Task: structure prediction
Amino acid sequence: MRRESDYLLDIKTLPIGKHSFEYELDDSFFDKSEFSFKTLGCICAKLEANKQNAGAELNIRLIGKISVPCDRCLAEIPLSIDRELVMSLKSDKDGNLLNNDEYELDFDDGVLDLTPLFNEELLVSIPIRNVHDEGKCDDKMLAIFEKYSNKRKETKKEEIDPRWAALKNISDNLKE
Result:
């Protein structure tokens, strides 16, 4: 079963030994990816496959730059990516448990789609919180953020549930 992708590695037809491949992950790759945010960039994926009789070992290195949205002002932030991954491919039909860095490959199919591997490694390399350095965010967006966040804080202070107010009084009495 062959998948439609530019990032396929046909392990079955590779001769035994080391082989090098290079893939370009550009804006079209990021458009097809299922990231929850808009990402642009250019990443060079260098792959070295060492095929053996019972499997293969993949050394993958991702190098390049991507742009992700700032969590505060939504403007783009450039991020440098330099990530390495070593993965073992095993043909194990016995149902044995594999290690974390091992991936079961059906050698009857023999084709590995690298897209999920690239996506996962890129997602892991992006920080959880992406914000510009202090003072570099878009001033217009920050003004809008401040405008709406202040109103929300004021309304919350006015609407205190009386049951919680009674509990606060109890905790204040305990402190005395």
The radius of gyration is 25 Å. Residues 138-176 form one domain. The chain has two domains: 2-124, 138-176.
